[in-house]
Amino acid sequence: MGRTTYGVLEQARASFAERSWQDAYRQFATADVATPLELDDLESLALAAYLSGRDEESTRVWTRAHHEAVRRDDPLRAVRSAAAIGAGLLFRGETAPAMGWFARAERVLEGCDDSAEQGWLLTWNAFVRMWSGDVEEAQPVFSESGRTGLRFDDTDLLTMARLGEGMCLVLQGESPRGLALLDEVMVGVTSGEVTPMYAGIAYCTVIAGCSEVFDLRRAREWTAALSRWCDSQPDLVPFRGNCLIHRCELMQLDGAWSDAAEAARQACEHLSGPVKWDTLGSAYYQLGELQRLRGEFSEAEDSYRMASESGCPPEPGLALLRLAQGRIDLATGVLTRALSEVQEPSARSRILPAYVETMIASGDVASARLGADELDQIADAIKAPYLRGVAATAEGAVLLAEGDAGSALRTLRMAAATWRALNAPYETARVRVLLGLACEALGDPEMAALELDGARKVFEELGARPDLVRIERPRDGGLTAREAEVLRLIASGMTNREIARNLSLSEKTVARHVSNILTKTGVPSRAAATAYAYENRLI
């Protein structure tokens, strides 16, 4: 090896130790062109390529390392390279090729004594089982591979095994045990005991586990830790997009909508190329949510479409967009279908709030009641403050729709307190609008005005234009008594002919009233007028 090549290798190794992944990749690659790298440096080149976002190159180099280890009759190192390739593929959502590499690794291990590498293959196969829904079968496999990690003092293996076991417990409803195990995993990760590839996987998986059970406190803390970890490695690519998605979700809840939108756009860019990650759809969905809330309906439509094309269901956001557009029939159909497709309580709890809101808008208060009751049951089971706030908000809205303003007021006060404790200004403001309606119904216009003014201020600060339009619009839209009467009959589902017969008017007169109603309320259709009537308590 020439002096120049040796110098480049020394620089590459130093860059690798400093976690300067781009520099390490370029320097190792330069040295490799001059003289093919030895196995240790070849493995470092593969990891540097992976962590700097060169997925195809990392697979190519790890494949070289795998074959070199086989040639040297070193099956354990050959398995490590094969497992690294499979893990990278697996966490990008490419399960079939990942399983192919795990199968190859199993064949290489045939006839070998007990080893940590056998624990690694058990772990990856258990992850595949868990994500396929076979959680009960996966958990004991993770436990076994964890014991293997302890026996061979393999910190990375022990971390991944406990990570999987903790997620299995969370998914089986044993959240306290599962989250305690995930916290233990993160102690090792944040203290630097775990190598970068597996640390990144642990960060993303643990935060996903916190989101699964709506544990905002943990999600905030671990997302902040992930942000610091990513920021300490400017060249890091694979986990930065996922980090941005988590940050976006939390910033949206905290009311930092502009920062959240920028994080969502950056996540879309990071995750869309050159290798498309399976979380790309979540990034587009999150961007669509922010655009919808800000009244950027055309942009939101595009983002939800991109989310769907990337494998992320666009519900309930797309249905709420349709509701905001006054297309209640479409919103109702989307949410009814989406609920019929999911049975798991956590997944249903993400759709039910939109379902309750849409059923109230459509006048189907009985269905809204069923949805609110189910949300309440899920919140009681999961015991997360966030979900308790969601359920209390839905219950208060239904009580209002049922005409029980007194009970609604008490429930909505509890909801507002929960959202304030969670530092969620938009959700608090939405509840304050309902509180204003309840006070109005109870004959307290002064308190109603205070609640509505408070909500208006938050909506203005956030840029929540659709909410501002609803709150600023005159309560009756300037309708005459006769027009308000016609609107109530439209909302009941009557045609113009039926309304004419009911009110002893001509169809021509009814048609004129309908036209005036659409003009004064600023809505495009009879369905949108129905939504307006329910939102503004005209029924």
TrEMBL record:
Residues 472-537 form the HTH luxR-type domain. One of its GO terms (molecular function) is DNA binding. Keywords: DNA-binding, Transcription, Transcription regulation. InterPro entries: Sig_transdc_resp-reg_C-effctor, TPR-like_helical_dom_sf, Tscrpt_reg_LuxR_C, WH-like_DNA-bd_sf. PROSITE patterns: HTH_LUXR_1 (PS00622), HTH_LUXR_2 (PS50043). GO terms for biological process: regulation of DNA-templated transcription. This is Regulatory LuxR family protein. It comes from Kribbella steppae.
